[in-house]
Amino acid sequence: MNFQLKETIEILERTPQTLSHLLTGLSSSWISCHEGEGTWSAFDVVGHLIEGERNNWIPRIKVILTKGETETFPPFDRFSQLNQNAGKTIEQLLSEFAELRRANLETLRQLVDPETDFEQTGVHPEFGVVKLREQISTWVAHDLSHISQIARVLAKRYQDDVGPWKAYLRILAD
């Protein structure tokens, strides 16, 4: 098992800054590009991360710690951000994400006892019984997955422009 709360927090606290450095100040053509119909732009992904901060990670951790397996996690709408952020800028979303993440990490530090809580369980609506350490580990992997997704979406904007170098650019593989 690789899970360590301190190391988990190292990644979680860097995600907002990583995305801010990558996306702040980019033109709207970068922020709104996507991989085709039904796929997400960088703007959509940051909106999704905000929804996770509001309605997924800490609320589910609280359910595990207070209700255990007596209550199933409320479902998480992974697509709600698609209708909520019209008129906002990427900078506004990034700022909101950073504020929510800061508060959530403080809550995480206060709620979780690393000596006793990691094996506590709750009930996921799709997966069934899950452990607290699995929920927190997924939070990290989820961040990294979406950072990778954003990088891929941005790179694919130039997939037809790189010419023969596409053969050497894994990020552009179909």
Automatic annotation (TrEMBL):
Residues 12-150 form the DinB-like domain. It comes from the Bacteria. Pfam families: DinB_2. Residues 83-110 form a coiled coil. Keywords: Coiled coil. InterPro entries: DinB-like, DinB/YfiT-like. PROSITE patterns: PROKAR_LIPOPROTEIN. This is DinB-like domain-containing protein. It comes from Bacillus swezeyi. The lineage of its organism: Bacteria, Bacillati, Bacillota, Bacilli, Bacillales.
